[in-house]
Amino acid sequence: MEEKTLISSYDEVNDTFVGKVVDEHGFCADYCISDGIYLGIDENNIPNSVYVDDASRVFNISKQTLENSNVKIDIVCDGICLIFKMFIEGLNICSIKCENVYGIPTINYTIDSNH
Length: 115
Known about the structure:
single chain
């Protein structure tokens, strides 16, 4: 499993969560992998950012919890299925498994704010 460093922020007024992989540059597309959850990928189809609109509703958690900076995201893809999991303070707040219609190659990595 590859580990990368995450920078995340939460805007309480707009209820928007944004996470980006440190030192990753380039942007190719944003894909909606679930209601309100967008995964940004680079020119190599590798996920490098996450954007969640209406985050407290999407994750069904309080805005106060979303303000916590201890965030970890696991992304696993076998070329066929994409698994996205997000944790705040060790609490699994999101777990999505969907068909990989985005062209993401086989990957297995963790993006962690504490890496």
